[in-house]
Design a protein that fits this description.
Blueprint (H helix, E strand, L loop, with lengths): L1 H17 L2 E3 H10 L3 E7 L4 H11 L2 H10 E7 L5 E4 L2 E4 H8 L5 E5 L5 E6 L4 H12 L8 H7 L7
Parallel strand pairs: 1-4, 2-3
Antiparallel strand pairs: 2-6, 4-5, 6-7
Length: 159
């Protein structure tokens, strides 16, 4: 019987290790105590665009330094069976992506009031993403739309 229990645990253990509970409200509270915003990167293991965003943007030294300094960072890989909690939402990571309303990859930022400060679907290069991080960190999302901010910062052409 002990052998059967051991093999059952051996089979179940990887699933348990890959499955987490991600409580966004608690992460926002942690970010607030450090005067930071919460940054969540939604992705999927087999998504080519997600891998591109990770390798050529999020893994660059410049972006990692900015994230570490100004944000609490969490990634949600929907290939795993994570449970996500945010306000009244309680469901799987895949359901959370639908709740947010965008596909993969998507960068989501939350402010200290537990509201979404910005949602940025798609792939961004290092320069573009640095502007997004500055837009959120500075609180500019409260007073100006991102496209206008990006134009002001010289990232996009003005009309």
């Amino acid at each position: 019987m002990k052998i059967v229990n051991f093999f059952f645990l051996l089979i179940l253990l990887p699933t348990l290790l890959l499955s987490r509970e991600i409580n966004i409200d608690n992460l926002i509270n942690k970010a607030s105590t450090q005067n930071k915003h919460l940054f969540i990167f939604l992705h999927w293991t087999d998504c080519v665009y997600c891998q591109e965003m990770i390798m050529f943007t999020l893994d660059t030294q410049n972006i990692q330094k900015k994230i570490k300094k100004d944000f609490i960072y969490e990634h949600i890989n929907t290939a795993y069976k994570d449970t996500v909690k945010y306000k009244d939402f309680n469901g799987t990571s895949k359901e959370f992506v639908k709740y947010i309303g965008f596909g993969y990859p998507t960068s989501v930022f939350f402010d200290q009031n537990k509201t979404i400060a910005g949602v940025f679907p798609g792939v961004y290069d290092e320069k573009e993403f640095a502007v997004i991080l500055k837009y959120i960190k500075s609180g500019s999302y409260k007073t100006i739309e991102y496209d206008d901010y990006a134009k002001k910062m010289g990232l996009k052409e003005k009309d």
